[in-house]
Amino acid sequence: MATPSSNDTGGMVERRGHGLWLSHALMILGILIVFFPIWLAFVASTVTQPEIVRPPMPVLPGGHFWENYSRALFSGVNVPVATMMLNSLVMAVGI
What we know:
The N and C termini lie far apart (57 Å). The chain has helices spanning 18-44, 49-53, 65-75, 81-94. By secondary structure, the protein is mainly alpha-helical. The mean pLDDT is 84. It has four helices and no strands. The relative contact order is 0.06.
């Protein structure tokens, strides 16, 4: 039975050099491409409707976060979102 030498890598080859930083740069670019629309949706939910439609649309959150979210969760148009979320929780636990 052969004993492994001290410089044996176990069959794995480590990547170094240009490919490593390029793959990291592409991953970061991909993350930014996916994250940007989510960020814009969040920003749009924190500003008033006139601020959304007035160009250019802001890229930083506005000052109406609590007002908009409390109205969406507890007032709603037909049924408050909090009631729908409670209903979903009851159904998920019940099933």
